[in-house]
Amino acid sequence: MADESRIEELRLRLQKDPGSIAFAQLAEEYRRAGRYRDAIHACQAGLATHPGYLSARVTLGRALIEVGDLDGAHRELAAVLGLAPENLSAIRGLAEVHRRRGELPEALEQFKSAFELAGKDPAVEDAVRTLRRDAAARATPAPAARPTSPTPRPPEDPQARRMTAYLSRWLEAIVADRRARLYGARA
Predict the structure, then answer these.
(1) Per-residue burial over 102-119, b = 16 or more CB atoms within 10 Å of its CB, e = otherwise
(2) Do the beta carbons of residue 30 and residue 38 sit within 8 Å?
(3) Ramachandran region of residue 18, left (φ > 0), alpha (ψ -120 to 50) or beta?
(4) For site-directed labelling of 160, which of 27, 41, 104, 113 has its Cα 20 to 30 A away?
(5) 24 pLDDT band (50/70/90 cuts)?
(6) What's the gap between Cα 175 and its chain centre?
(7) CA–CA separation, 34 vs 81, rounded Å?
(8) Domains in the chain, please, with CATH?
(9) Distance (Å, whole) CA 123 – CA 3
(10) Average pLDDT, the chain
C-alpha cells in the first residue's frame, strides 16, 4: 500500500513545479494505493508535457486496466512496446489486457515474451498457470448443483476443447524451450 505522506510530498512538489517529472512517481503511488482515477489523471496531465515518458505510459496503462478501459490500456501499452519492445511491465500489462478480454492465445503469447525476458519469475509462471486453468475451465463446464431429477449433460464445447489443447501444447513448448535454454541439451 502506498504511503499517504509520500503521496502528499509528491503532490506538493508538483504544485511547486508543474513541469516536474514527479508526476510519474505520484501516479504510481496513486495506482499502488488503489486510487486508479487519480493515477490516470496525474499521468494524463504529466504526459501532456512529457509525452515520451514511457514508465508513466505503463502506469497509465495499468491504471486503465483496473478501471476497465481495456482499449485505452491496450493503446498505451502497445505504444510503449513499439518504442521499447523489451519493457517487461508493458508486456505483462498487455498480457493482462488480453486475459481480461478472454483472448487467451494472445495473452499466452505476451506471457511467453515476459517469461523469456524475466527468466524464472514466479509471477509470470503463476500467470501462465492461471491462463491454463482458465482455459481448462472453459472446456469443462462447472459442476451444477445436484438436480432433483436426472438431466442430460450438455454437450462439451468443441471450441473450448480445441482451445485447451492448443494452450496446453503452447505451454509445453514454452516449458521445453525454457528448459533447453537453462540446461542445454541435457533437458
Answers:
(1) eebeebbbbbbbbbeebe
(2) yes
(3) alpha
(4) 113
(5) very high
(6) 20
(7) 25
(8) 1-86 (1.25.40.10), 102-140+155-187 (no CATH)
(9) 24
(10) 80
Q: Which one is predicted more confidently, 175 or 110? A: 110
- Residues in CB range of 38: below 8 A, 6 or more apart: 27, 30
**Residue the block writes with cell 469443462:** 140
> Strand ranges (DSSP E) for the chain?
none
Q: Angle, nearest 10°, between helix axes 4-16 and 22-32?
A: 150
* Contact (CB, 8 A) for 64 and 73: yes
Tell the residue number behind the cell numbers 478480454, with chain if given: 101
Q: Which of 14, 48, 51, 50 is nearest to 29 (CA)?
A: 14
Amino acid at 135: A
Is it the case that residue 151 has pLDDT exceeding 50?
no
What are the grid coordinates assigned to 106, written together? 494472445
Q: What pLDDT is recorded for position 187?
A: 42
Say which residue the cell 504526459 belongs to: 47
- Provide the b/e sequence for 121-135 (b: ≥16 CB within 10 Å): eeebbebbeebbebb
Tell me if 29 sits within 8 A of 10, measured CB to CB.
yes
Average pLDDT (46-66) is 95
